[in-house]
Amino acid sequence: MLTIPMALLNVTEGQIISRIQFENPWWKGGRIDRYFGELHRRLYFSRFYQLIQEDTIKRAVVLMGPRRVGKTVMIYHTIQELIDNGTDPQKIIYLSIETPIYNGLGIEGLFSLCRQIIGKEDDLSGYYIFFDEIQYLKDWELHLKSLVDSYHRCKFVVSGSAAAALKLKSDESGAGRFTDFTLPPLTFHEYIHLQELDHLMITRESGGDKSTLTTDTIDIAELNRHFVDYINYGGYPEISLSPAIRTNPGRYIKSDIIDKVLLRDLPSLYGIQDVQELNSLFTTIAYNSGNEFTYESLSMTSGVSGNTIKKYIHYLQAAFLIKVVHRVDQNGKKFKRANYFKIYLTNPSLRSALIAPIDATADLMGNLVETAIYAQWFHDTRDSPYYSRWRSGEVDVVRLHPGKLKAEIATEIKWSNKYHAKPRELKSLRKFLKYNGLSGATVTTLDITDRIDLDGYELRYVPSAIYCYAQGKQVHDSL
């Protein structure tokens, strides 16, 4: 029998059993709920499913990602795939740990109760057990480690929306026993796929030996329209695919994503007392995504003390709401003290939800195009981009060689054709190429594709929408 904690004495075992049965309808029907079954699968599904099937190494899988990107849906799709491939439906267990009725119950006790319910209490092998929103269980990593060590012939999967907090504990306590998998917001590449717009994209051969493949489109005007839609609505699957939600994306994103993170998730995980301060800081950052900050400037504009800001920025990154990008100098060298840095929203649709959807001709479109392009790289934590700024110049994106730690790629992000017509106005970029011995750079445009030679440097012009799509596809293919 299940031991019910003192805090839950008003909850009966029957109520807990009923909830578990409700969360596991496939025990009787053999299928997940039709609603989830009809939803599109994320492009990340096949990689995630491979981890679930891995049985040569006894590890739990820790599925991380922000709210509303489809972690729970991907778990349901995994459950159905397991059933379709011959797994006994009663050997698949799903439990949402944030459900209040489970508060205070250990995950091993819940696992035992599930086996009692299906009449297999003594059967200890062949199970797939999914614990959703695991961060609401105190010391979850210790409980999970114990399960992995105790039940060698079972596969445990946990999910959570506080990535940094989960990863920290995963690294500390789960070394050799946990495998992390991050599900990010939609890339533009994935957005195009979910919208069934792949026909817009083509791959061309380039280079003299025709060995280099480049991404292009059959209709840049139409692709740009979808790119603006992605910037306004495209970070989250439900918004992307629901015309009804698109009529009021601010209400959906603000209430279901931003408010729940700022008012519930972060305060409960980190003991934050003043949520108004946290909200003030996030609003300041959201209004100025892509701008350069110092802790002092953020303190002045948000009204939050400098030491508190450092903690809040860490928390907001943990919740996948923002990403800090660090600066290098004109020689591509990192600074010993990171006094200056840029902060980007992890997806531009967060800003559109807080303020209003933006028009393609708006003055701030340039900032959001930059935010969208940076958002593609945030999916790959192995290779962080930088920006360069010095007394007389700045370059939007710098990629450092991972071994030599010197600049190898430079990119200027523009939502305009101006610098194709007037390339000599790219003075900072030309200086950076000279200082770092680079042969050329990429400059994004509104709708022009071209290559030109400027004083011996090759400038590759590509529309921002195509560049964003290609970067998202490249990151996805490399993971």
Mind sketching the topology for me?
Layout (H helix, E strand, L loop, with lengths): L12 H11 L2 H4 L4 H4 L7 H9 L6 E5 L6 H14 L7 E5 L10 H11 L10 E5 L7 H11 L4 E6 L2 H11 L4 E5 L5 H7 L6 E6 L5 E6 L2 H14 L3 H5 L1 H4 L2 H22 L4 H13 L4 E2 L1 H8 L3 H13 L3 E7 L12 E5 L3 H6 L10 H13 L8 E5 L2 E8 L6 E6 L5 H4 L5 H10 L3 E6 L4 E5 L2 E7 H15 L1
Parallel strand pairs: 1-4, 1-5, 2-3, 3-4, 9-11, 13-14, 14-16
Antiparallel strand pairs: 6-7, 8-10, 9-10, 11-12, 12-13, 15-16
Helix pairs in contact: 4-5, 9-21, 14-15, 15-16, 18-21
Question: How much helix, percentage-wise, in residues?
Answer: 40-55%
Structural class: alpha/beta
Low-confidence stretches: none
Work out the helix count: 21
Compute the number of structural domains: 2
* Percentage of residues in DSSP E strands: 15-25%
Number of strand segments: 16
Oligomer: single chain
Q: What overall form do the CA principal axes indicate?
A: globular
Q: Main sheet?
A: 9 strands, mixed
* Overall pLDDT metric: 88
What's the N-to-C terminus distance? 44 Å
C-alpha-based Rg, rounded: 24 Å
Strand order of the largest sheet: 8-10-9-11-12-13-14-16-15
